[in-house]
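Action item from last week, closing it out:
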Amino acid sequence: MAQAFQPASLSIARTDRPASPPHVSERLATATGALDQRLLADLELRDMKRPEILLVNPWIYDFAAYDLWARPMGLLVLATRLRREGWEPKLLDCMDRDHPAMATPKLRPHAHGRFHRTPVPKPEPLKEIPRQYSRYGVDPEIIERDLLCALAPKAVLVTGLMTYWYPGVTEAIRMIRKAFPGVPVILGGVYASLMPDHARRFSGADEVVVGPAESLITGALSRLTGITPASTAPSLAPEFAPALDLLRRVRFLPVLTSRGCPYDCAYCASGLVSPGFVRRDPEEVVREVLSSHLRYGVVDIVFYDDALLVNAERYAVPMLEALAARLPGLRLHSPNGLHASAITPAVAFAMKRAGFENIRIGFETASDDFHSRTGGKTSMDSFLRAVRNLRAVGFSREQIGAYLLVGMPGHSAAQVEDDLDRVLTAGAHPRLAEYSPIPGTRMWPQAVRASRYPLEAEPLFHNCTLLPAAESDVDWQFLRRARRRWGQA
């Protein structure tokens, strides 16, 4: 007999939670206080019979993928909104490294590690690429079994991240159609927002949602299902807090303190995917961290912001100071690049005191001419000051990573070598990041002209592994030599 779909339960997360440092838990007992009133309202709604909705995070098909604190944050945040509006969300995560039917994953000390990986044949457009292509995530047979053991939801919401990961999206939707014929499927996320026409043509979804889903999903669900569940008053404000109880195991806390970015960099899609820039009250963020630590025992906190340190004196610094005072012993990480110009001595000190372990700065290149042409978010002087400030409060070179974009149109091998030299001389650790052309960005037309691939016709060619818009002297042989010479991890 079919059973309710339960890919994760709260009891699993609690049972498997890592031990908390005693001094942290003792302070938390009095620090968190009563539950937030909005959470109480959500819990009351969940006690009522509510229509179920399935949220799906598809597989990744790529030449390489690594779980650097990756969670389906968009779906988890959307789940919080859906609960508030009267739905009962369930999560099917095809990337779940903790699925009981798969081998136990190896983790690095700070809760990141490798995805499950299965080599697969390359799609026809990529046949000539001399690299192994793989599916990352849970075996499809296991996902299909999970679906067949579930009651049909009222609707299915599927997300998609990179444009060139769309094969995982289409496979997931085909499997959903087979398991739940007649159930409407809605596609959202980055891929749908950047290439809605391609998504409508090839994904198999009934509807494609472009942009932040919170303000659009209610109407789409009502239109496709005929259901308008009882709910609290609807909100047009952006959502921030993820519904972590949907995860099978909570190994770290993903945090959003803002949505969007005030900059308009020519190579970045942040403004396309999340227009505008909205901040949270720092105290609200602190309460979320305190509550999640008490509930799940997490000490690794990962910021998902695109612009964490913008106006830091008003937002980030008070938040970090409060975390340091009320919850010592945390480990903080910023895999998304921080803005170098925002890292003043006071900001660096607050970061150190709060427990930052892994810092990534979005430097891109040492060329000030490049920055002035592409958005002006940083400069060589800003980067040097940021590194000096971080080193002065005790951060090591290994803790300060500087992302360098390689493979951009017009960006030569000599410029990359100069970038590497300057980052090392400054006292930071270079992190090469291969450029992926992104539709809709200001650099996209230049990438299309420079590429040897038909970028507008086939998203698979956006894959950064191909170095699709690189100059002729920037190839994989050059990158291997550069990594060996500069010791870049």
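Closing note: The chain has two domains: 10-225, 252-486.
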